[in-house]
Amino acid sequence: MPNKHVRMYEALMENFPAPGGGGAHVAFFKAGAFGYKANVPENQIFADVRKNLPEGGRTPTDDEIMTGISKGFAKAMHAELGGGDEVTVVTAAKVPRDAFERLVIAGHGSTISSIMARSPVPLDFPEAEASWRVLEALYTPEEYLYIGGPRDSGTLGDTVRTVAEWIAKFKGANAISAGKVYPHIIVNPLTGTTAPLKSKPDKFTYRGDNTIAKWRFMVVEFDDASIDDQLAFWSVIRLPVAALVLSGGKSVHGWVQVDCADRDEWEREIEQDIFKGYLVPMGVDGACRNESRLSRLPGQLRADSGVMQKLIYLAPGGKAVPA
What does the domain layout of the chain look like in residue ranges? Predict the structure, then answer.
């Protein structure tokens, strides 16, 4: 007989609400949370939601569905590892429950200026140059990168280009122009060829987990911590940080150098060990664990507010901020 989590998951799928005011977006989150507890992989949750989603006032995009699922999945994972009454909380987490608070206390008083002063690469250039400066420092000219909006498709020659092509574009006089913004980047190099989407194997894309060529960086960000607490965290945590970027909103994005050999090592070491055992219990957003995670590209303007995304630390090869 299925356990209660499987029954809850199956009941949701059988009675999935319609989009366009029917509660579908909340249900995407629930599907991720219920699916995690029922041991259903995220790509299968997506397929089940797509299969059972009724017609409504509008058709949600794949990104909307997957974002909701990922948030619910990560929230359930965080609850299991960092809170609650189950025994697994004690055994799965590899850091004390107050680890983040201890780090914040140790780094109290850290500021943007104090972290910038520690940057191995001096950040003495105009903020708008940060886009090509960070690419030049962390990648080789022939590597492919996705840079664009969160919902843009991966298009070779447009949102997917070689680093050399991106640098030339951002050095140009019209690098930041009205009508076209490049706020996000997949921090890991891509193959430059298409591969099936994990969530929809019959659909091919230039951007996604299956198109990663090198598993170089993991993205670390917090959903709920204040900027001051995040700055304190980064000023004392001993992780090999390649770059820190202010999102222009409520987050500091850390690009942490990991240099995994392949996907198997990424899934074993990053997704299973580092995120589940250390980062998620400290409050890091669990949705960051996949290798094609988007981050904010410094030197670009946020599309929603026009605020500059600011580079505050740059260390090719990775270096802990307090080192």
Answer: 4-92, 99-314
